[in-house]
Amino acid sequence: MPERPVLQTRSLDVHYGRGRAAKQVVFDVGFEVRAGESVGVIGETGSGKSTIARAVLGLVRPAKGSSVTVDGTDVTALSARALRAFRRSGVVQYVFQDPLRSLDPDLTVGQSIAEPLLIRGGLRRSAVDAAVRERFEQVQLDPALTGRFPAELSGGQRQRVAIARALVTDPKLLILDEPVSALDSANRVRILELLGILRSADVALIFISHDLGSVAGITDRTLVLYHGRLVEQGETAQILGAPTHPYTRLLVGSAPTLAGGSIDRESRDLLRTELVTS
Ligand SMILES: Nc1ncnc2c1ncn2[C@@H]1O[C@H](COP(=O)(O)OP(=O)(O)OP(=O)(O)O)[C@@H](O)[C@H]1O
């Protein structure tokens, strides 16, 4: 394993809004992800999972004193222009829950996969085409689909295209935000298998999910967020098998309800009582 983590956050605080309207949603979050590692991020709706991902991409500005270092660069210290260049470099890529959000409906899927390389520039057209073909193969898509538009594909195929597009810049860090939750169970399994294959490719993965079964299947370590705070982190088997924090115990105990996106009111009330008294 290389010495330097691909991602390191320290004292990460994020607020939304300004002045009196400012609301802190992430508090003092610190963690690392290394090359080849797959890290799950779990926590109920609104716990700050996507906000942390946005901070890694420089889409939200963390508070002073926070640091988010990606491949040796502290993104919190970059100017707006340098941040755009950082995102264009493709060192970090983000896959959304709904691939229709990340794919341009007016581009064929082949064009969509090529786009990040064309934006970054510096490659001949033949090299771009070869990279698109290679990624199609890597995500096990039929090459005959290259000329189709996103609307002409199934949800599972579209998510493969979104993953291929994310991989085409050879990212060091791939953030997957609920990548399987919009899919039916057969496609969900296929995409998880695919992500399992990608794990060996030395890409660091962050896998944000409500589905603890998926997290158990493809991550080495897991971070547990509760109201914007990192309450527990460790090996996934330990976190899901023998959680120590009361919130994680509740989350794991109510796993089936989490599939719906949020724990129920009764559990939440119980949790509050437990946390206050723990
Ligand atoms: N652009 C925004 N402006 C103001 N508040 C926001 C914004 N985006 C998110 N929030 C708030 O920040 C908190 C954390 O939201 P975030 O989307 O990071 O949670 P999450 O854990 O990813 O939730 P989910 O599982 O529903 O995606 C929530 O209270 C949310 O309402």
TrEMBL record:
Keywords: ATP-binding, Nucleotide-binding, Transport. Pfam families: ABC_tran, oligo_HPY. One of its GO terms (molecular function) is ATP binding. Residues 9-252 form the ABC transporter domain. Belongs to the ABC transporter superfamily. This is ABC transporter ATP-binding protein.
